[in-house]
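Exercise (ungraded).
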Amino acid sequence: MSQPTAARGARTRLSPDQRRTQLLDLGVSLLATRSLDELTIDLLAEEAGISRGLLYHYFGTKHDFHEALVRRAIDDLVQQTAPPAGEDSLGRLLASVAVYVDYVVANYEGYASIVKAAQGGNETLRRLYDGARAALTDRIFTADAQGEVVPDTPAARLMVRGWAALAEELVLTWAREPAGVSREKLIRVITGALPELVDLTR
Amino acid sequence: MSQPTAARGARTRLSPDQRRTQLLDLGVSLLATRSLDELTIDLLAEEAGISRGLLYHYFGTKHDFHEALVRRAIDDLVQQTAPPAGEDSLGRLLASVAVYVDYVVANYEGYASIVKAAQGGNETLRRLYDGARAALTDRIFTADAQGEVVPDTPAARLMVRGWAALAEELVLTWAREPAGVSREKLIRVITGALPELVDLTR
């Protein structure tokens, strides 16, 4: 249930930017178990205990609201899956993939709906999604500057694109139907697939 | 340019079913270089040299027309990529993948737009697309009944789903930007990736 009094109290103490951030935090947490279509301005207003009018004040149209929400969800994903320092290249990739798998499982409904909206006709969401994928995959080359796992060649970049599609499909399918594959095995399979794919181009 | 006289002459000799088939043939050939959105009832009517009214008679609504067209394009893809007889399992997979690559290149605009429409919100197209993917991937297990390339296990079926996403992304990306990868190498990479992925689950 929402807590109108507490939320109204908080509102008076926060700057508009802080309030917007707080509302996006709430929106992203609601998105974990809801699709983008299910997360309406009405629902967020109710959960935040503020009026729809005030939400429109912070986010403009419903479209702007969804865009801000997707941008925020994607930023979170990119940030959370940053390769950790102090491992070898394959270890860093393994750690990133593990966080990605856990992120998709924890945010399944929202993540699946963002992927679907981006792959369909929504151009703004597609741009955000493509940007996130580029950030996630470019990072592989930055994190692996010596090319221990993947050399930075045009062919390897093509393979990384295919690998990202493979990883996304595997995790989204596995989250619904694990097919006897453990989380650890899934992470090892996805991570191991990248150098194998690059090897095949040689 | 269209040839109204010839088309009208043909129309009188054909049954409604034959005429519908002929119009779908024409639609599918136009779809090679056009997206689904660009292939309108108006365009098909002009190219076939018949009235819009008559086209609506054959296909109902614009939605029904697109559905019939996608069904037909997908049937063509499934049929053309049928594994040839008289090869070993890997040879049959290689031959199927080669036809798939050539099909996507030859029908790039239409194919890319069908994938996009199906991945987005269009439920009918999504069902047709999922059906085609299931037919294409289930066939791997039928064509390889001894499990020479892929044993029929739940984990292998999960990998085949991921592999299909990999193959689609690689071919659609490569068709726009080959990255120095030859057609032959692309076909070998996609084919070789499947047993590698299945091996990783062991």
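Further reading is listed at the end of the chapter. For now, observe: The domain at 4-65 of chain B is CATH 1.10.10 (Arc Repressor Mutant, subunit A). Chain B has two domains: 4-65, 70-200.
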